[in-house]
Amino acid sequence: QRNLLVRHLEHERRLAALGEMSAVLAHEIRNPLASLKGHAQLLARALDGDAARAAKAELVVREAVRLQDLANDLLDFAGSNGPDLRDTDPAELLRESAEVVAASGIDLRVATSPPSWRLDATRMRQALVNVLRNAVQASAGGAHVEASAFLERDRLVFEVRDHGPGIAPGDEERIFEPFHTRKLRGTGLGLPIARRAVEQQSGTIAARNLPGGGACFRITMART
Hints:
Blueprint: H1 2-46, H2 51-78, E1 86-88, H3 90-101, E2 106-109, E3 117-119, H4 121-138, E4 145-152, E5 155-161, H5 190-199, E6 204-209, E7 215-221
C-alpha cells in the first residue's frame, strides 16, 4: 500500500508539472497563432481567383485551427481550479453532451438516472463530450453508440459503449495518459482531460473491452 501511495503521488506530481508546462506553452502560442490564422484567411479571400494558391492558403488556415485546438486542449488539461459543484440533472447533461458530439448515432438510456446530483456541470460535460466523441470515432460503419446514466449502489454511473475494435491489450490505463494515441490525427488529450475533470470531482473513470466487441467507458461519481 505504501509503494502504491508513493507511485500515485509521483504520478500526480508529474501530471502537475506537465500541466504547468502545458499552460505556459498554450498561452505563448495562442496570440501568434490567432494572427497567423487571421492573415491566412485574408490571403485566401484575396486569392479567390487563383484556385491553386487559395487552396494552399486554406491549408494554412486548417492547420492553424488544428493548432488552436491543441492549445485549447492543453489549457483544459492544465486547469487546476476547484470544482463548482451544484445540483445537476445527469440525464439532461448526457443529452446535451450527445447533441454536441452528434445529431444522431448515439442511443441514450436515462430512464433510471437520478433526478439530481451534485456535479461541476461544465467539467462533467467536457468529460462526457470527450468520451462520446471517442466512442463515435471508434464505431465504424454507422454503428450506434450507447450512452446511459443510472444509479448503482448509491453512486451515479455514466456508461458509454462503442462498436469499434476495442482497446489494445495493455492500453486500458495508458489511453488516459497525456499524448498517448493510436490515431493518425488527434492530440492524445481527450481522454486525459476527461479523467482529470472526473477526478477533480472525486470520481473515477475506467475502460474495458466488451465480450461481444467494442469498448465500455464507465464514469462513477459518489455523493458529495
